[in-house]
Each structure stands twice: as structure tokens, then as C-alpha cells.
Amino acid sequence: MKAVFVDTGGWMACADQADPAHAACTAARDATLEAGRTLVTTDFVVDETLTLIRFRMGLAAAHAWWQQIDGSTRLRWERIESDRFERARTLFFQYRDKDLSFTDCTSIAVMRELKLTTVITTDHHFHQVGFDVLPATRLRRARKPRRS
Asked: What pLDDT sits at residue 146?
């Protein structure tokens, strides 16, 4: 499959101009699309991203991001249904030496199933488990949402 996965960290960096990885992630996304490749993400990643955008940038920004991705012919959504959920659960408890989120594990399960090797993200975990990460710059830990 000629596709690149986009994780929450990648979507957030693209959406938030204040994010230090904004320019690099946007360039990686645009280069992927210009090369004729499809972007792939999951419903769990969309859930996480939509929530983070709302908390960090406001409801209007979340709505604008939703409008951009909803129905896009250049984005393929994968659903996390029971088989994928169970594979993610197995990964979640298998990687005892990494602090993967459950959403990370769902993404890893989908990427492995679809034989995707590249991910646009700022999350160092994907490199740790063997994927090629774009942008190919120094990775940073994903920011945690601010608590009110």
C-alpha cells in the first residue's frame, strides 16, 4: 500500500502553528500527498486529536480541523474494531519497557496489519518499535494536555 500513517502527534503539529514541529510535520504531510500517497489514520487517533485540539486551541479550531479531514479523498480512516482492539491490548501489555498509550498500540496494530512502515508523528514511541518516522528530525515527547 502506498500510504503513510498519521498519528496524533503529527496531526497536532500540523494543526497548531505554535507547535515546534509545525513546519516539519506540515512539510512531511504535503510531500506525502504530492508523491501521490494516501494518508491513513484511525478513529482512535481522530478522537484523541479532536479532543486535544479543542483543549489546546478551542472548539472553533477543532471544528476547522474536522472539516478539513471529514470526507477527504486523500485520507483513509481505519476503524478499531474487535480484532484490532484485541491486537492492541496484547501490544499494550507486551511492551513493558515502553510507556505506550493504548491509542499508540491501536495505531501500531493497524500499521502492522496494513504493512505500513512510515508514520508522521512527533511521538518517539513509533521509532522505538521500528517504524520510520517523518519528519526525520530529532523527536520530542508528545505534550500532555493541560489540566484545568
From this structure: 47
